[in-house]
Amino acid sequence: VDKLDAIVGESKVSSVTTDNAPNMEKAWGILESTRGLLCNGCAAHVLNLLLQDVAKMDEIKRVAAGAEAITAYFMGRQQLLAWRRSTRSKKKTKKAQEAEAQRKKKQELKAAVFQNVDNLVRDEDFWMKGEQVIQLLEPIIKKLQLLESDHCYISMAYWAFRDLLKQPIYCDPTFLVSTAKAILVQIEARWNKVHTDAMCIAFFLDPAQDPNGFVGKDRKNSKKQIRKMAKRLGYTPEEVDQAYHEAGVFWNLMRDWTPKQRRIESRSAPLEWWGDERDSYPVLSRIARRVFTMPTSSAASERNWSAHKFVYSDRRVNLGLDKINMLISMYWDRLEKPLPRVIFNPAILQTAVTSEGDDDEEENRIHYEAHDSDGEENYEHEVLA
After folding, report:
1. Which of 151, 167, 195 is the last residue of a domain?
2. 349 three-class SS
3. What is the rounded distance in angstroms from the CA atom of residue 208 to the CA atom of residue 221?
4. pLDDT tens, 244-266?
5. Is residue 354 part of a domain?
6. Would 300 be classed as within a structural domain?
7. Do the domain assignments include residue 74?
8. In Å, how far are 180, 214, 322 from 348, measured between CA atoms?
9. HSE-up (13 A, CA, CB side) for residue 38
10. Euclidean distance between CA atoms 384 and 378, whole angstroms
11. What is the pTM of this model?
12. Which residues pair with 40 in a beta bridge?
């Protein structure tokens, strides 16, 4: 934190978003008690872990295995056809004869694979189960997409998990009942781990949220946590009491809103709303504006950090030779061309990575010349720096 303060200025860092490892949670406590920072886990990471838990369930595993077999078969057909064409010749050489023998063995294996895929394709129960599995995963995937975005407030993380906990497809399932109920158990387990004070306070202070949308005793606890947060942020005893009082006034105001008025108030982002209402809530608005700067995922935090051109370590922006070659191989494979031998000048790489454009918004790109095995054809390829 001291190094970051030296880069961006003292007291400019207001929150920390990390993954959800146990050692990180202990680090949060130290930072919150000694630096007055707001700490939170990556909500998107929790949903990724939830998907991993769900993928281990028997019904999901069976459908996924069948889908992988079908996908692998169809994705590999072009390579098989290209391999067969490469062994054709008017006059068979010794090398071609060996290739022919390998082809026959491969054809036998291919026939067995085809039979398995053919059975899956013709199995109506497989496709029905596949559609049901997609329906079970869809709510989680949509929430993951939301929480990984840059314009998502931390209050939405609370809403997302609360919405998953109340999904009829898990609470009152009509198909794959045991699997759906098992998913609900996993959602509850992950919710207990991602459920933080900062997230509850954000939901409490978000004018777009339903006041009755809290889970359990979170509403009462959130108001108490506002007092604790004010103390942790170094506010005076008078300011702490005032923040608690303003929280009660704001809460009662929200409860009096009609649905139409709530829709009108929700047109403004929480940060904008609290900026406009700073005169009505002079202390609480300071806490709210700090809370709503917290991203919902570590990916969004890193993108925000990079957008302001802050680099903690120069080595993190340098791509090594192995990774460069891997990227070129992947991009070249998409063009469905034979992979060329890649030649590049490391000096060009260093220049491209370290160069910065003042007014030019175009992305830096690295150009490489690639030659085929005979050195006859030249290709020019671009890789993002």
Report:
1. 195
2. helix
3. 20
4. 999 999 999 998 998 888 888 88
5. yes
6. no
7. yes
8. 54, 56, 16
9. 28
10. 20
11. 0.64
12. 17
